[in-house]
Please model this.
Amino acid sequence: MDEKPRTAAYTHTPPGFTVRFMNDDDLPFVVREHQRHFPHGFFPHLGTAFLTAYTRAYPTSPHSLAFIAELDGRRVGFLVGVTDPVLHRRHVLRAHGHRLAGRAALALLRRPRLAWHFVRTRLPRYSQELTPHRGAEPDGTPPGARGPVAVLAHVAVLEQVRSLGIGTELVERFTRHAAAAGCSRVALVTASGGEGAGRYYQRHGWLRRGETRTPEGRRLVTYERALHLPAWLPGTATVEVAAEVLAEEAGAAAGGAAPDTGDGTDGHDLPANG
Model:
């Protein structure tokens, strides 16, 4: 893949708008906005220390993308996602697993009710999905005939700068890089109904692929979008991908037990017009 540009501006966004790759200096902003925009998720309940360690896995993984949107030098939004959920999961477990486990255990010890909720709703699924293996390709699928399904995990834009196209540019930047990385499709989930951003994604060419519920009972809808792979990449065939291909937010394998983002959030906070 071509070298990643460090910044880029777009003609149909406000003057002074840029997108760049996330670094450690951005973590306080991203964690704060994650907690504010996605308060229903399980991961934010584990505390700032855990969420910071978890978010750090995105800019350090070769199989993920983490963008910061700036307007006149001020952070106004972020996006994180993965281009290969299985390989990203392996990276997280290898490079960050002990730190994440330690911080999560400490948070659960301090909050027995949260620990009991974790045991009831997530421990069996996490234990199964964090087993290091890659699912086999379906029978009859030629080697290299499909790329991984990219997962857009979270995107958020500050309220005061919405309706300026910033969210749209973050999403488009992610899909372009995912296509260049060899992904055949990109998937996401958002809350069902008016609480989510489904209408926005449908207007931008995303197709509804199913619905599920979080352990807390929130209804989530899966959307996906085909990617046009560059001609020089192997395996550019278009394939159908089932709704359950959406991976765990924690980087678990595609095709997991439930197409949610792993922490019970819809993972998105975009206005209807981007």
Observations:
- Confidence is low (pLDDT under 50) at residues 1-11, 134-145, 231-266, 269-274.
- The beta strands are 7-8, 17-21, 64-71, 74-82, 149-157, 185-191, 207-213, 219-226, 268-269.
- The first strand starts at residue 7 and ends at 8.
